[in-house]
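Key result, reporting period 2: structure in, sequence out.
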């Protein structure tokens, strides 16, 4: 269907607002510095409808149709569960709190459900997709359903677990993604390590993973993922996501995790992460015993713990990332 009637209606609206008469003749002179009524009408005539209406988001029927067109059968190996609910997409985009100049890194865009919503809110979206079939189709979907926003999209066919800053055509400021369940934690940690320009994020992961990543010291869910994420950022749970909004429907619950980057504690990250791994490898043991291999002996572990101001009879889940950093610095040579 032609867009001409809509353009004409926009032109009439603009004429009415500016006082333009028939043929675009102004009824009164514009104020200094203000655009002329003729310019306003011309602008209304040249702005595509899609630019005013935004992207047409995907629903269940469109998602299935795209999958059928591509001969796609979602696989567990790639963690492919596609969001097909437009309201969920809008909710995620609102929760991400993006600015017009943000450059969003989206991992695993799939068929483009979330991509379309992100393009409306951000200055650019860099979509990293491991599946060449989906990576090739995404620009076509965006051109069809959000033509005025298509120039904001950059697609990189790559494994997010191996991507580096030099692989990306733009510098992302935010990570917003529906992450595959099987690689959610390593993807988040890898991207925060490799892309210091990413200052905040909102990711959809398995609900249990969101709980673990957001957990603080002293809680049962606190562990290696929580401590390592805390090196980079402060994290919080941002709400549940029902199973019914995905195709195919997953066997687990999902949740949103929000994070904001902060400065890491003093110390060497690799050394700190090594003591985190060692401490949680035997989390039921007191640290004096759990860290004996890391330090060389139980006595050496106790000396390091006391030097760091940590009770040798404490357990790993009691230590914050700052405690681990002090402990790494106190490791005997």
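The corresponding designed sequence is given below.
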């Amino acid at each position: 269907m032609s867009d001409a009637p809509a353009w004409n209606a926009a032109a009439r609206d603009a004429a009415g607002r500016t006082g333009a008469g028939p043929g675009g003749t102004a009824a009164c002179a514009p104020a200094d510095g203000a655009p002329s009524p003729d310019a306003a009408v011309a602008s209304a005539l040249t702005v595509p409808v899609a630019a005013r209406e935004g992207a047409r988001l995907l629903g269940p029927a469109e998602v299935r149709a795209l999958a059928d067109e591509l001969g796609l059968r979602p696989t567990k190996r790639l963690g492919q569960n596609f969001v097909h609910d437009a309201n969920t997409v809008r909710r995620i985009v609102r929760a991400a709190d993006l600015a017009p100049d943000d450059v969003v890194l989206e991992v695993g865009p799939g068929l483009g459900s979330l991509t379309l919503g992100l393009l409306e809110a951000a200055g650019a979206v860099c979509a990293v997709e491991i599946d060449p079939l989906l990576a090739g189709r995404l620009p076509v979907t965006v051109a069809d359903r959000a033509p005025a926003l298509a120039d904001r999209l950059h697609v990189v066919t790559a494994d997010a677990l191996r991507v580096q800053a030099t692989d990306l055509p733009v510098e992302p400021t935010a990570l917003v993604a529906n992450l595959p369940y099987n690689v959610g934690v390593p993807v988040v940690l890898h991207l925060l390590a490799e892309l210091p320009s990413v200052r905040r994020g909102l990711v959809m992961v398995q609900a249990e993973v969101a709980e673990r990543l957001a957990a603080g010291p002293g809680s049962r869910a606190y562990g290696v993922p929580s401590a390592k994420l805390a090196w980079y950022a402060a994290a919080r749970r941002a709400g549940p996501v029902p199973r019914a909004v995905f195709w195919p429907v997953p066997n687990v619950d999902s949740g949103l995790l929000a994070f904001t980057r902060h400065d890491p504690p003093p110390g060497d990250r690799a050394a700190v992460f090594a003591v985190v791994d060692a401490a949680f490898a035997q989390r039921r043991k007191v640290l004096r015993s759990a860290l004996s291999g890391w330090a060389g002996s139980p006595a050496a572990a106790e000396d390091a713990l006391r030097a760091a101001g940590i009770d040798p009879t404490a357990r790993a889940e009691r230590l914050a990332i700052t405690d681990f950093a002090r402990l790494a610095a106190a490791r005997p040579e």
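Residues 1-52 have pLDDT under 50 and may be disordered. Residues 73 and 213 are 30 Å apart (CA to CA). This case is discussed further under Risks and Mitigation.
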